[in-house]
Amino acid sequence: MTVRSALGTAVAAVLLAAAGSAAWAATPRDPCQAVAKSDAAKALGTPVTSVKATTMGPSKNCAFHGARPFQSVVVTAFRSDSVGEARARFSDLVKQTASAFSSAPAKLPGVGDEAVTIASNVYARKGTEAYVFNVFGTRGPALTARAVELAKATLGRIH
User: Fold this and answer.
1) Which of 139, 123, 50, 52 is nearest to 90 (CA)?
2) Which of 24, 54, 65, 118 could form a disulfide with 78 if both were Cys (CB 3.0 to 4.6 A apart)?
3) Each residue of 18-69: pLDDT tens digit?
4) Domains of the chain (ranges, CATH numbers)
5) 153, 122 in Cβ contact below 8 A?
6) CA nearest 51: which of 76, 73, 29, 34?
7) Are 73 and 63 in contact (CB under 8 A)?
């Protein structure tokens, strides 16, 4: 894992927690159930050797690990009580994350109801649910493409 990857995960976790538990009051879907293990393996480029779920404030996280140290995909999920509230909170999350990375978000058409990439991570919202897809590795177009494919596959199964 690069220092930038660790920073990205830390920033995402802090921003999600900082978004406020009242704002994200509804219990989010378990990302360990939402993400297919085969899709996580494809994003990793290697079989998944372990899966670990955690809860941080109003969010649920799932880490899919490969055989090598620091080889992982982390998906964070959170949910609002209404679509309008989810839109507003998602917008705030994107703005805060873009500011933290000093990077403009790039829109991703066709991924959920709205989605962007920031620093190779994918931030996506579908209905009242929002997700952050982080594939660890050297940031760049190939890593972003793997995160986008994981987001598309996951959100395509969620109703």
Assistant:
1) 123
2) 24
3) 444 445 556 788 999 999 999 999 999 999 999 999 998 888 999 999 988 7
4) 3-110+118-157 (3.40.1000)
5) no
6) 73
7) yes
